[in-house]
Amino acid sequence: MRSPKKTATTPARSSFVRGRLVGAAAIAFAVLVVIENVLFAVTGALPYDAPIEDVLAYYAANRDAVAIVSGLVALYLPLLLVFVTGLHGLVERRGGAGTDWSRLALAAGATLSAIFVLVNVLQIGLALSASGLAEPTPAFGLVWQIHAAAFALALPMLGTTCIGSALAAHASGLTPAWQRLLGMVGGSLLLAAGLGNLAIADGSPLIFVGLLGFAAWLVWLLATGVRLIRS
Predict the structure, then answer these.
(1) Where are the transmembrane segments (predicted)?
(2) How far apart, in whole angstroms, are the C-alpha atoms of residue 213 and residue 193?
């Protein structure tokens, strides 16, 4: 027969392990995304308003970099789903405060993952076709435009995930007020950029508003991940 003490400590230990797993997933996701963006910066990734000839030359010369990025995406998308799913579970186990926000973050995170898959699939297609083309074709240009549009439409889903997770974590007592503010600011910037998704897909500097919001959310993820691992 189990002792009451042992029975009582089992849920606490399970919650502790779950919290550390969710925190580790948040940190790993943020780190892999940073590596991805550093790789794009190093290889000279082009803005969406770049001439299609330059786009073709970039993908023809950087097929290996695209392969590495694709591998990173294959790693960090499951980590994103682990984070939003695990966060929802933690919120429910802490009394349910913020459950609606965690559900919103979970739904938005799942949608975001699907859009990121599309963005990456199109990028792989660009890299594969670029090596066999002497000059851009209408089909190549169309894939580039769809890739840009998918990325632009990912911004509002990213902002919703950011706001939902920040509010849920704070409401359940997992994070302090300053982290809620950081998440709200980052998510709001992403949502604001998402309103101009057509302009962003056409190469507008408005994309930097979204990137600033994304950077704020990555900082939030790192801070939250460290807090969950230590708690």
Answers:
(1) 21-46, 66-91, 103-126, 146-169, 181-200, 206-229
(2) 9
